[in-house]
Design goal:
By secondary structure, the protein is mainly beta. It has one helix at about 10-20; strands spanning about 5-10, 25-35, 40-45, 55-60, 60-65, 75-85, 85-90, 100, 105. The protein has one helix and nine strands; from the N terminus they run βαββββββββ. The longest helix is centred in the first third of the chain and has 9 residues, at about 10-20.
Length: about 110
């Protein structure tokens, strides 16, 4: 079976540029950890690039994923959304069999 790396939308990269992530020497780190109400949860933060990270880059802005989290994010889409309830980075993960209402917790 062919596995595809995660994709990052232009909107997500544009938001990183707006907050000046690259000028701070930071990238958007997307990780998967055990926990949350559905078994796994996303951890999203600005961080430095580590040696074993997958780096997705556009116009100098970077999104990084560590090697442990990568299998959980195969073919996922990392996006940025602005809604009435707030603005945030979101992950559309085709591997998740269910997720909770907050959007940060999922099961596989």
């Amino acid at each position: 079976m062919l596995t595809l790396p995660p994709k990052v939308t232009s909107r997500a990269f544009e938001r990183l540029a707006e907050i000046g992530a690259s000028t701070q020497g930071k990238a958007l780190r997307v990780a998967v950890e055990g926990g949350g109400c559905s078994g796994f949860q996303y951890q999203i933060e600005l961080a430095e690039v580590a040696e074993d990270d997958l780096v997705l880059e556009e116009n100098g802005e970077k999104v990084v994923i560590d090697s442990v989290s990568l299998p959980f994010l195969t073919d996922a889409v990392i996006d940025f959304t602005e809604e009435l309830i707030g603005a945030r980075f979101v992950i559309e993960n085709p591997n998740a069999t269910s997720s909770c209402g907050c959007g940060t917790s999922f099961s596989m």
